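Example for tutorial group B:
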């Protein structure tokens, strides 16, 4: 690839049009347009399209722009380092990760943390959102890994592969004030679990979460009709309500000690039959990227090993 042509494309997008970019680069608009056409011929698809009186990048153009931003930012860092008489430091590799909004934040941290122990550690770029939107970014190579609580949905037309990171049973937690209000000790609450869920207010994940139908089915098998006090799409918000004594809530048992400490709650029982799953979704069937390989190995051998 001719990086001068890439720089011309980058300049046109930043300027919002060929005429303005040509003035900044001291070139004729015809020369600039012809150079960008050579780049488009090289990559095999258009990178710009007309938008009013100016131009805007196509889908392929937005992908090229993302790489161009990183390439020229590194070039500027190198220039500043050399002009300052310093030896240029080796730039850290970038790992772009999407976190599905249903994944607990603590799980996401534990899953990604092994990459930060690498030498040198990658520079993480994390984004959170709905799984379908993150998969679209993965298809465009704007992300290298998506962490999800479900495998790749069959109806999504994205060429990607699901890698099981691990499974965790689900524990239920309650604030001491909630138990005290109900006249229960921790020992008494544990002895009456799970029947207790029909007596205490219960906070549940939203109906669209992957965990909710599993919890509902498990409670039906236990003959428990819970007193639902709230439903939450955001699990961190659900835990915050639980900490204040608004109800009992469920969370991955693998994080039981951490949740008890962070939210000042107590584990009153575990639904061992209910398994919450977590996946790493990538664009490659066989993982070769070192940071992603470290993430998947650590999740399977350490975080979810029990």
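The residue assignment follows.
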């Amino acid at each position: 690839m001719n990086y001068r042509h890439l720089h011309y494309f980058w300049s046109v997008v930043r300027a919002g049009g060929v005429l303005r970019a040509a003035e900044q680069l001291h070139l004729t608009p015809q020369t600039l347009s012809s150079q960008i056409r050579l780049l488009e011929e090289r990559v095999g698809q258009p990178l710009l399209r007309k938008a009013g009186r100016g131009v805007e990048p196509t889908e392929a153009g937005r992908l090229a722009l993302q790489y161009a931003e990183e390439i020229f930012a590194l070039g500027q860092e190198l220039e500043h380092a050399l002009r300052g008489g310093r030896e240029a430091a080796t730039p850290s590799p970038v790992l772009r990760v999407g976190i599905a909004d249903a994944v607990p934040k603590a799980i996401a941290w534990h899953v990604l943390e092994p990459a930060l122990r690498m030498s040198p550690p990658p520079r993480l770029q994390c984004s959170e959102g709905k799984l379908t939107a993150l998969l679209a970014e993965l298809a465009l190579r704007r992300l290298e890994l998506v962490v999800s609580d479900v495998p790749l949905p069959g109806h999504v037309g994205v060429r990607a592969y699901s890698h099981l990171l691990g499974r965790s049973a689900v524990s239920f937690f309650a604030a001491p004030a909630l138990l005290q209000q109900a006249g229960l000790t921790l020992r008494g609450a544990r002895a009456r679990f799970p029947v207790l869920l029909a007596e205490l207010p219960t906070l549940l994940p939203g109906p669209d979460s992957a965990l909710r139908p599993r919890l509902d089915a498990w409670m039906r098998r236990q003959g428990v009709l819970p007193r639902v006090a709230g439903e939450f799409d955001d699990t961190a918000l659900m835990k915050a309500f639980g900490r204040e004594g608004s109800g009992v809530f469920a969370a991955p048992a693998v994080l039981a000690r951490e949740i008890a400490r962070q939210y000042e709650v107590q584990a009153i029982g575990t639904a061992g039959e209910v398994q919450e799953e977590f996946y790493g979704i990538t664009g490659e069937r066989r993982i070769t990227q070192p940071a992603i390989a470290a993430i998947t190995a650590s999740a399977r051998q350490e975080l979810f090993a029990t």
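The chain has twelve helices and ten strands. Compare this with the pattern of hydrophobic and polar residues in the output above.
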